[in-house]
Every structure is written in structure tokens, then in C-alpha cells.
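DM from R.C. (forwarded with permission)

"hey, sorry to bug you on a friday — could you get me a structure for this? deadline for the figure draft is monday and I only need the backbone to look sensible"
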Amino acid sequence: MIILTGLVSIIIFILYIMDLRKHKFTTKTMVITGMMSALSYVLYMVPLVKYPQGGGITLMSMLPIMILSILCGRTAGLTGGMIFGLCKILNGAVIIHPVQFVLDFILSSMALGLADTFGHDKKYKIICGGLFATGIALCFNILSGALFFGQYAPKGMNVLLYSCIYNGSSAGVEGLITSVLLVLVPIKRFFKGRSL
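My reply, with the result:
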């Protein structure tokens, strides 16, 4: 299972690099990507709920990456998510395996950059995009929890169920709240008179 997950991760990175080669970054996009990644990290440093094996609920650290995706597109969102994931290591990350590192810190953060999947012209498309990005990120966290943190599950409990409960009550709750907050952000104002 770990080998299969590793291969899927490699395929995702190859697709991302191909996407990156098609969409060149302007200076403005690079600056916005850096600023939003840094803002996500600053918000990540403010934990509202902290869990014993890592994770928890932060001060909406997912929001800037989702906004970045909506403003600058998927490639910028994925890149900002990757930078944010790498910054999370500075906060004392628990890394027990290279595949776990990729799932928990790279792919789950990059998935937040998929918030613009359904577009941004209607509020329901924005919330659907936020929920979609959160769902993909949560899948990576759940997979990592089931593969690498199953020993923390209560005796007799299925490790996948434990991972779903653990990650759903932390990253899932934060993602749900963030998706709702995303609708309250005046996205159209950012687009008025500006081309990113």
C-alpha cells in the first residue's frame, strides 16, 4: 500500500510539473503566491485546538491558499500550497516516513490550491471549490493516518475509521469553516480593474 501511494504521489508531482511548465509565473503572481503562503503559515502558528498526535484546528490557515487559487489560478494555488506545506515543517513536524511526509505536508497542502476548480463567478461555485479542495486534502491526511498512525487507534477500532474521525474532526472541520468563510470574502472586488 505504501509503494502504491508513493507511485501515485510521483504521478501527481509529474502532472504538477507539466502544468507548471505550461503556465509561466509573472512577477506579480510570484509576489502574491509568496505573500499568501506566508500568511497561511502565520495563521497556522495560531492553534485553536491542538491534538496529541499532531494536527488540530488553526486560525483558518487554509483560507489564504484557497483565495490564492481563486485569484491566480490552479498552478499558483498548488505552488502556494506546497510552499505552505514546507513551511509547516518549521513548526516541529512529526515525520516518520518519506511517504507520510509527502502525504501530510506536501500533497494535503497542495490540494488546497484546487479551490478554483469550479470557477469563481458564483458563490455556490466558490463554496463547492472550497469543499472539493478540503475533501482532497482530507483524503491525503486520512490515508496518512491509516498507514502511519494506526497504532494510536483504540483497541479493536478500525484504523481507517480512527483516521477518518481524527482528521475529520480537525482538518475536516477547519476546511468546512474555511469554505463557508470563503464565500464571505469579496472576491469580485479583487478582480475589478485588475488582471492577475
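R.C.: lifesaver. The chain has a mean pLDDT of 88.
me: no worries. The chain has eight helices and two strands.
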